[in-house]
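Side project, low priority. Logging it here so it doesn't get lost.
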Amino acid sequence: MSKYFALDIGTSLTKISDRSSKKYIIEPTIAVVDRDSSRLIAFGNEALEIINKTPGKVKIVRPIRHGQIEDLSLASEIVAYLLKKAGYSKLGRSYVLSSTYGDATKVQRRAMERSLKEAGIKETRFLESTIAAAIDLGLPIGEPMGNMVVILGAGCIEAAVMSLGSVVSSTSLGIGAEDIDNNLKNYFIKRYGINTSTLLFSRIREQLLRKSEDVESHVISGHDIQTGAAASVEVLTSELWPIVDEVLSQIVDGVISVITSTPPDLTNDLCQSGIYILGGLAKLDGLGSMLANGTDLPIHICKNPEMRVVSGLKHSLNDFSHMAKV
């Protein structure tokens, strides 16, 4: 029996679903290894639980950075682990429709194909993430009019204008939510000499961008980089905003660059249709208004923004044979 899977593997989260199932498997694209022996311990949600319980004894390993596979073997193991949860079996043939960045090279797609082949997949086809999202949103991308989608991920930002069934102008930027976390982490190392987990800064980043949680200050606890002793410092929220704004400004500039490279007649369409925002960062208050101010276009923050790509891939599985090969 053949099985078909939709796969959206990202820097932060991996989402998988079987065509015949309503269930989606959503887990972090991470593994944890023993800090002393480098022994692989767990993947996904199990890895996250171990990190929270024994942070000093293990370290996080991420096979994907800024949308590119850096550790092929580990990526294969994580995908194989999640595919089993989604219903994969060695008894039948399995096929995967995977998301891909618009400017992904053949080398990068082959790396993904190899990782899936090592995980037991017979054949892999690809669909650009922005097109998959547009399909799920029901946008008229087959019509002679401009439609724009922006995906704000953890490690990569994608923006594309589509018309007549294809991408007219696009960009992929190797920046995202994790850059905010890393910039905050580096700031505290340089300014206060305190090192701590990026997971802490991930939580702070979400607080900073949620208007419903107007936190005036934050206590950062970790260890002194010179002595190794426990250390903490309390800082005002106003001190952190410039660090966050640096990344957000790059995102806005990237979106503007796509608009300026779009033919004028399609740009005029965008004045009516606007820009559809999805991905993990789309949920964060404040970014939508920054994009609106920077582009002078209507901004639509999509519901269920993290699920749009994998859902669009799933809709497209019926046309698997027509999807792009490597």
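Brief comment: The chain has a mean pLDDT of 90.
Revisit when time allows.
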